Amino acid sequence: MDHFAGLDVSVKETSVCIVDDTGKIIREVKVTSEPEALLAALKGPAYCFKRVGLEAGPLSQWLFSALAEAGLPVICVETRRMQAVLKAQIKRRTATTRAASRR
């Protein structure tokens, strides 16, 4: 199963949200805004990340480099464009919604 992570970075803390490929929230946690803390929250045998989205900001370059060096598929997204990225996500339709749309 594929996983995706979103990182909301501030100077002191970063909120981490991990979801699976169906959009179900797997884990939400706040950690200090340091590479070691983020890697501890993101590393685990249960996770197979397709993408890790990092909010652009003062710490972005430092955190991005550390996450990329650790082998994570990290991208940096400008804060103002994050909403557009989220709207562009394609949501999976269930069999029920497909059936309902064919009526």
Q: Specify Rg, calculated over alpha carbons.
A: 15 Å
Average of the residue pLDDT scores: 83
Gross morphology is globular
- How many distinct helices? 4
How far apart the termini lie comes to 32 Å
Instruction: Please trace the helix and strand order, writing H or E for each element.
Output: EEEHEHEHH
Low-confidence stretches: 92-98
Structural class, from helix and strand content? Answer: alpha/beta
Order of strands side by side in the largest beta sheet? 3-2-1-4-5
Helix content: 25-40%
Largest sheet, in brief, is: 5 strands, mixed
How many runs of DSSP E, i.e. beta strands? 5
How would you sum up this structure, described in words?
With 103 residues, the protein is of the alpha/beta class. The protein contains 4 helices and 5 strands, in the order βββαβαβαα. The chain has helices at residues 35-42, 60-69, 79-88, 95-101; strands spanning 3-9, 13-20, 25-32, 49-55, 74-77. The protein has a 5-stranded mixed beta sheet. It is globular. It starts with a strand and ends with a helix.
